[in-house]
Design goal:
472 residues; alpha+beta; eight-stranded antiparallel β-sheet; 12 strands
Length: 472
């Protein structure tokens, strides 16, 4: 009976040395097949089977990698190759999961009502997608980074693991009372939503949708906004006897009805009465848990926010001292949707020239070339000198922009320290609602229209001259 005998030497396998052995032990001559043991005995060698041939093809001899590199290769290939063949690994779909998450969250804005809820839904959908592709992505560093990132974001936003998820199916996510979702559902232009900002504060200072800054008289009732979706009217009264400067003591806001979303809602605030409800006593509009319109009281009797989800609009109303301030953020396509008969809108076109106190160049100080008398420099309004007004405003607003100038002007014309808080709050509202950070601060312009560093002396003289104009 013929016995099989394995040759002594290097063990079989794909990982073997091909150089000469030690001097005392000569290397055996190479066998015809370096991957198979030699056979002794009579007869021809059997032809290799197809499976054996495929295995041999996958295990061609190659130099042995270092142990650490071999371990890394083994870890990366674990679960990706099927035993016994060279098939391609199953496709890891982590990039698809990530792109879906980006598309679900790209339109969200943290300053808009409902952000946390929608963001958590998108995170849960992202987590579910990564779980479905986890087997195929085993060993994929991008996948594992995404899993850790999801966990961190859910913890930061206090998102529960269980709950509703966002769907990438537009038919499922369509919500006619969510401005952003409805816009996506319509298709067409898919550029990010363009927002506009308008603000009114002080006695009074207006920042228009075009970022023009004006100081106006506008005594009585004036429309700030009057388009097909929203109407805002303010009423201004004189601040001190003998002055043309006024301030806002009444604000009326009308959210116009939208089919399936909300009935018409009217909000009205007057000095010492800043309610956290509409005039009909309700605090929201629309059906369901996700209200299309609601009021949020931030500080009782002092600060409320209104979030109109169905038109993508946010409104801040505050009371500082005896007067009211207003800030509005609205999508451009809605803010500019109005009839020709509605063209008298201060937020759109600014104050009429006859009602302007400034020079039309975003400057509170329009006359920089004239020097006031020494007696004017010595004292302005009782209780405030120019130096003390500058010092007080600088404590709240270290950047000497147009808001700082407005603060100084208001202190000099009224003597009311609450106008310092009004200017500071107005700048905070800009930071919360204005879509472009590089435009938050507005600086006085030179004659050429370029920003100017502006010396304190020029600003000071201009403010004093404007003070004289107001009282003449």
């Amino acid at each position: 009976m013929i016995r099989k005998k394995r040759k002594r030497g290097a063990p079989p396998g794909p990982c073997r040395s091909h150089g000469p052995g030690p001097a005392t032990t000569p290397a055996p001559p190479p066998s015809p097949d370096p991957t198979r043991p030699a056979w002794t005995g009579m007869g021809l060698r059997a032809a290799p089977s197809a499976a054996t041939a495929r295995a041999e093809q996958c295990r061609r001899p190659r130099p042995c990698p270092p142990p650490l590199a071999l371990l890394l290769l083994l870890l990366l290939s674990l679960g990706l190759l099927h035993a016994g063949d060279c098939q391609q690994p199953a496709q890891c779909r982590i990039q698809k999961c990530t792109s879906d998450f980006v598309s679900l969250t790209s339109h969200l804005n943290s300053a808009i009502d409902g952000f946390d809820s929608e963001f958590c839904k998108a995170l849960r959908a992202y987590a579910g997608c990564t779980q479905q592709t986890s087997k195929a992505c085993r060993g994929n560093l991008v996948y594992h980074s995404a899993v850790l990132g999801i966990s961190d974001l859910m913890s930061q936003r206090n998102c529960s693991k269980d709950g509703p998820t966002s769907s990438t199916n537009p038919e499922v996510t369509h919500d006619p009372c969510n401005y952003h979702r409805a816009r996506e559902h319509r298709g067409g232009d898919q550029n990010p939503t363009s927002y506009l900002f308008c603000g009114l504060f002080g006695d009074p200072h207006l920042r228009t949708f075009k970022d023009h800054f004006q100081t106006c008289k506008v005594e009585g009732a004036w429309p700030l906004i009057d388009n097909n979706y929203l109407s805002v009217q303010v009423t201004n009264v004189p601040v001190v006897p003998g002055s043309s400067a006024t301030a806002t003591n009444k604000i009326t806001i009308i959210f116009k009805a939208r089919h399936e979303c909300t009935d018409q809602k009217v909000y009205q605030a007057v000095t010492d009465d800043l309610p956290a409800a509409f005039v009909d006593g309700t605090t929201s509009g629309g059906d369901g848990d996700a209200k299309s319109l609601r009021i949020v009281e931030k500080e009782s009797g002092r600060y409320v926010e209104m979030h109109a989800r169905y038109i993508g609009t946010t409104v801040f109303v505050r009371q500082l001292g005896r007067y009211l301030t207003l800030a509005i953020r609205m999508p451009e396509e809605l803010a500019m949707s109005y009839e020709e008969s509605q063209d008298l809108q201060l937020c759109v076109n600014g104050c009429p020239l006859s009602e302007r106190i400034d020079d039309g160049e975003s400057q509170v100080s329009p006359i920089l070339g004239h020097s006031p008398s020494h007696s004017t420099l010595a004292q302005t309004w009782p209780g405030y000198t120019l130096e003390t007004a500058n010092t007080q405003c600088h404590e709240k607003m270290p950047v000497k922009d147009i808001y700082f100038q407005s603060c100084v002007f208001d202190l000099l014309t009224t003597g009311d320290a609450n106008f310092t808080a009004a200017a500071h709050s107005a700048l905070e509202d800009v930071a919360a609602l204005h879509p472009r950070k590089e435009r938050w601060h507005i600086f006085p312009s030179s004659d050429s229209g370029t920003p100017r560093a502006g010396s304190d002396v020029s600003v000071t003289l201009g403010l004093l001259c404007l003070f004289l104009i107001v009282f003449l």
